[in-house]
Amino acid sequence: MRVMAAAVLVMESLLMGFALLIAKDDATATALWLGSILSFLLFITAGMLKRKGGYQIGSVLQLGLIAYGAIVTLMYFLGTLFATLWIAAIVLGRKGEAIKARLIAERDAKNP
């Protein structure tokens, strides 16, 4: 779960970098700083997923990514797309971890 979620966060951080390139000519300095901070937080949060609070922070940052659509309109769509990938990474990651735990338990039951 952590690997997929971290990959999504790093890709979102790169996406924000590209969004900043689009916004640099028309946006205010405050909007550019907010985008830069959001990009940095997305990248840092990818490394914080070892802790339980990392997933909550990542989920909140998804809202910021979508909200940046007020600056770069395309981010409404891309933010929603990546938020969907974030949810999929968590759901599929949990299923994968459950399957792995079950297989390990079966293996240990066969080989005491």
TrEMBL record:
Organism field: freshwater metagenome
Name of the protein this chain belongs to: Unannotated protein
Keywords: Membrane, Transmembrane, Transmembrane helix
Classification of source organism: unclassified sequences, metagenomes, ecological metagenomes
Entry's transmembrane regions: 6-23, 30-49, 65-92
InterPro entries, per the entry: DUF4233
Pfam families noted in UniProt: DUF4233 (PF14017)
